[in-house]
Amino acid sequence: MERLADLPPEFVFVAVPFAGQDGLERLRLGQDDSGANGQARDDDGDGQMDEDGPDDLDGDGRISSMLVADAAGPWVLSADERFLRPARPGEGPRYVLLPEGRDDDGDGLFNEDGSGGLRPDLNFPLGWDGIRGHPLAGELPLQAPESRALVHRLLDGTGANSAASPVAAVLLFSGEHGGIAFPGGMQPTPWPAGAEAALWARLTRDFAASTGRALLSPLGQLPLGGTLAELCGEPRPGAALDWIYGVAGVLAMELSPWGPRMLVAGGGRPLPGNLGGFSTEGAGDETMPVTEDRAWAHWLDNVRGGIGFIDWHPVELGTGGGEARVLVGGWEPRTRLNPPADELDEATANLAEFVFGLAEDLPRLAIEITGVERRGEWVRLAARMENKGELPARLWPTGRWNGAAADSKEAQIPGVKPAATGLAGHGLRTADSATDDQAALDSAATGSVERGLSGADLPTTNGVTVGERALTSAPVALELVLPLGVELLAGSERVLVESLPGGSRTPETVWLLRAAPGSVFTLRASAPGCRTVERDVRP
């Protein structure tokens, strides 16, 4: 907001500072840090709602974590007993990790039905698998009003598929990985592996250059960029990021201000100390914490002096008249999710620079008139399109195109090779390869919609539902709009281009027409995520 004059005037910037308002309020009140909204749910199916939530067992005024001994539990303590690691066969003691609290409703379970319902960012149709995919994914996709609001914003008359105001990019500032995550929370994805590999690599380099973060962190070689599942360490079915890219067809990424990838090289400065007592040579020791926790240990020990973590300590837990012991401790509320106040400036440093750079690089269409000639009522017109931006004018979901349309008024020209300054090797496919991949994506997209959206509030635009929109194709197009009385003798009214990478131009298109003197023709260039451009010609 301090640099409005630096924003490109052809773009509108929409900021949603609190996309999950309920989750933020619950975090501020110390209720939980799950990000869930406030929709009441009967999580345990006992006819009651929100009756068994977290409790402050040790009376320290904080709701932290709890380890419950369980012979089938998935976790054991690592060599650094502050951190857990996955249990191997025969190891023990094993634990189940839960929020701190007791069995309030006496059903033998702990905190299984707390206040709050679902996470809006995991409530999107593409890849959604209900609570089987994630316990906070909801009973129906788009059940969360926050999720539906974002869908409507992207798909209504001012959204991604509107010629008047398409959405060029969506940036989600969230996550706790400290890097830049790209679509790919669901496994497998309905788009082919590497579909945008060069584009994601380019954006990762830009993010590193803007923020000073390392492409590979010194501790554990954590990559700065990757798919959402890779950076989270587990799948994220039903993620907003996947839907925005795979269905709305919009360039989307998750930028995480805080996390292990920026702890070691945040702001470009090396942190002091000896890596928290863990040398990089010990990384292969299976009793050590996982790589991300090793980075957190380094930060805790050498930057915070141990502040931010509560050592595990036993607490007596009343259960049905008897006493049982659990271990209470773990991260202090907010510490791992958000940087402490004295590190907030460094965690957010230069994120705006990346946004400015991205806006400058977004595709911008232009029309170049290469020839106009009139001889009486005979007119020869020649023109071509150009992408003046550095990023491509089409993504994989918006380029699923099976070749020339049946309409004889449309013509197809081959994909345009990138200019020397463009993205060589960008993952835009030929029409033939698009045909090979179409069925897989269509099946996955419609399957998700048919499975989960039958009872939800489906947004529509011009009678097209969310699921159907995933099946449409939106190639780059150059159109010639003819006034009444003009006859097209040669050429196509609408020329479709398979791809238009940054810095590239299409071959020249030529039209022959018969038109009375004074006639005005309009050339129109359009592409997904780009502002439509028009030029009038009076030959």
What topology does this entry show?
Blueprint (H helix, E strand, L loop, with lengths): L20 H8 L36 E5 L5 E3 L6 E3 L8 E5 L30 H4 L11 H11 L13 E5 L6 E3 L14 H15 L13 E3 H5 L7 H7 L4 E5 L4 H4 L27 H12 L6 E11 L2 E10 L12 H5 L2 H11 L3 E11 L2 E10 L22 E4 L17 H22 L7 E2 L2 E2 H4 L6 E6 L5 E4 L3 E4 L11 E6 L6 E6 L6 E5 L2
Parallel strand pairs: 5-8, 6-7, 13-18
Antiparallel strand pairs: 1-4, 1-10, 2-3, 6-8, 9-10, 11-12, 12-19, 14-15, 16-18, 16-20, 17-19, 20-21
Helix pairs in contact: 4-10
What does this structure look like?
The chain is α+β, with helices and mostly antiparallel strands and 539 residues long. The chain has a domain at 363-537: Immunoglobulin-like (Sandwich), CATH 2.60.40.10. Helix content is 20%, strand content 21%. It contains twelve helices and 21 strands. It has helices spanning 21-28, 130-133, 145-155, 197-211, 228-232, 240-246, 260-263, 291-302, 344-348, 351-361, 431-452, 466-469; strands at residues 65-69, 75-77, 84-86, 95-99, 169-173, 180-182, 225-227, 251-255, 309-319, 322-331, 365-375, 378-387, 410-413, 460-461, 464-465, 476-481, 487-490, 494-497, 509-514, 521-526, 533-537. Strands 13-18-16-20-21 form a five-stranded mixed beta sheet, with no helix packed on it. A four-stranded antiparallel beta sheet has the order 4-1-10-9, with no helix packed on it. Strands 5-8-6-7 form a four-stranded mixed beta sheet, sandwiched between helices. Strand 6, helix 4 (197-211) and strand 7 (225-227) form a beta-alpha-beta unit. Helix 4 crosses helix 10. The radius of gyration is 27 Å and the shape is elongated.
